[in-house]
Amino acid sequence: xxxxxxxxxxxxxxxxxxxxxxxxxxxxxxxxxxxPDVSPADAFYLGSYxxxxxxxxxxxxxxxxNLEIWQWGLLAGIAALGIAIAxxxxxxxxxxxxxxxxxxxxxxxVTGSAPPTAAAGKAPTLDNSSNSKAKGAxxxxxxxxxxxxxxxxxxxxAWVMELDKQLSPYxxxxxxxxxxxxxxxxxxxxxxxxxxxxxxxxxxWRMIAAATFSLYIADMYFKWRDTQAEGTYxxxxxxxxxxxxxxxxxxxxxVLEHDISxxxxxxxxSRRSA
Length: 274
Prior knowledge:
The protein is an all-alpha fold. The protein has helices at residues 2-31, 41-61, 69-90, 92-98, 130-153, 158-167, 171-195, 202-227, 241-273. It has nine helices and no strands. Helix 1 packs antiparallel against helix 9 (241-273) and helix 8 (202-227) runs antiparallel to helix 9. It is globular, with a radius of gyration of 28 Å. The chain starts with a helix and ends with a helix.
């Protein structure tokens, strides 16, 4: 079947893009020791979304989705929940404001009393001793030490840092595309899973649907840690295992879909020859 071939080709190409993106991201983070908002790896991550969505859209448009009423209701519920979580993760400040959870800004209290170090009618004394000068020099060195340490710890060459500055303005748009793409994949995979449940295509679409669920969980967790938790996300978190699950399950789904489409073509040829 042409649609099945397009599906496993799209998934295979998407996994290739995903692998290249992972290698580039590892070079940027592990070798260069840079955590950029946007890197060249995002170009391949975006490409993987495009081919995955394209393959699934072809699978949907080539078949009639004869869903029952309860299946449409389940699909609508999953879509609504997925969209709500994505909006909450993407724009946490607006939700906090609407729910009245935004903390009030601290008010500065100004008192009319004079500082305790300056008594009324007396000028502050100046300490010009060598001990005071040594303390001042130590304070200046302490302020400049973090900047020098930060400059020494990075291994990134100048062109990497310059590229990071040029790509940083596109971080919001790219993250928004990831969120929209996750929700789109979630809805399409759920629809196809419900449509093919119990048929010969059910095994492959169970794997593909599980892969999209895993990708959605991992991405939403990443965005939540980056927005709700004030950017405390670091690579190596436990829920990153869902990224691994997603790649494995997509690969299994592609293999099963390839097997089904190949057997369908072989059975057609045998019937024609008979």
